[in-house]
Design brief:
By secondary structure, the chain is mostly beta strands. About 10% of the residues lie in helices and about 45% in strands. The strands form three sheets. A four-stranded mixed beta sheet has the order 2-4-10-6. A four-stranded antiparallel beta sheet has the order 3-11-5-9, with no helix packed on it. Strand 7 and strand 8 (about 90-95) form a beta hairpin. The protein is globular, with a radius of gyration of 15 Å.
Length: about 140
């Protein structure tokens, strides 16, 4: 609780906080011999949950998200994406994949990956809070 209060205080001063990837991005790993994984989570309205997936150019990735209230969506950002917390919220700088951008409200996406590296999956809501199940497959 004291961390939230400290962040609120320093944010009100207009200071910018970089997001530490090791603490705020959940890495999706595939079990040995598997090419897909499912994670469960929840996101509060106005906030986002971040996940990363390492993949190679030419691989095919599929992403699907479901929630009991059908109010959860995602974006997929390519390698080299950066992000930071500002006093106005999470700011992401990078390119999204076609069909999985900010305005797409994607619940399903699949495509061939254009570059090797770490892809950032950003989960948010269209309204209210949301529980979700996110399934990612890379072949």
């Amino acid at each position: 609780m004291w961390i939230a209060l400290a962040l609120a205080y320093f944010s009100s001063l207009g200071l910018i906080f970089p997001v530490d990837a090791s603490e705020n991005v959940n890495q999706i790993n595939f079990a040995h011999g598997r090419s897909s994984a499912t994670v469960r989570g929840a996101v509060v309205r106005g906030e986002r949950a971040l996940y990363s997936v390492k993949a190679r150019k030419g691989q095919r990735m599929s992403v699907r998200i479901v929630g009991p209230e059908k109010n959860v969506v995602f974006q997929v950002y390519g390698p080299g994406t950066s992000y930071k917390m500002t006093n106005t919220g999470l700011q992401i700088t990078g390119d999204t994949l076609p069909g999985a951008g900010d305005a797409d409200d994607a619940e399903r996406w699949s495509g061939t990956l254009p570059r090797s590296g770490v892809y950032l999956l950003v989960v948010g809501t269209t309204r209210g809070n949301a529980a979700f199940q996110l399934t990612v497959s890379v072949r």
